Amino acid sequence: MKKERLYEKLENYKRATSRLYEATTLQIMDDIVYDGVIQRFEFTFELSWKLMKDFLEYTGLTELRSPRGAIREAFAYGLIDDGDQWIDMMIDRNKTSHLYDEEEARAVYEKIKHHYAGLLIAFGNQMEQELKTMR
């Protein structure tokens, strides 16, 4: 993969994080907003681990096939600060595919709003710094 392609993926990712953040700031609290935030979170999380994977492969790491492996290596590399919170985010992301309980969906929504959106934005900022300093 070329560095230019990583920049494109980063720009797509940053747009997704911006849209997620925008959704978390809405003052309207109803099921449609909760569903929309969760859906944007799912999409943004998928982009995040794939961007981690592509970046790490660009630097020479191979055989990253899962979100857990990408998160583990991204933490070791210094792309993310809190590997445990990212693993928790991955677990919640996996739960959202099977959420039928309104109470649990709202709990995940609160985590997205108060924790996960910030982690996703911080990762995008760190990736931007990494790409600027790379050859």
UniProtKB/TrEMBL annotation:
Molecular function terms in GO for this entry? transferase activity
Q: Does the keyword Transferase apply?
A: yes
Q: Name one Pfam family in it.
A: NTase_sub_bind
Among its keywords, does the record have Transferase? yes
Key words, A-Z? Transferase
Protein name from the UniProt record = Nucleotidyltransferase
Kindly list the organism's lineage.
Bacteria, Bacillati, Bacillota, Bacilli, Bacillales
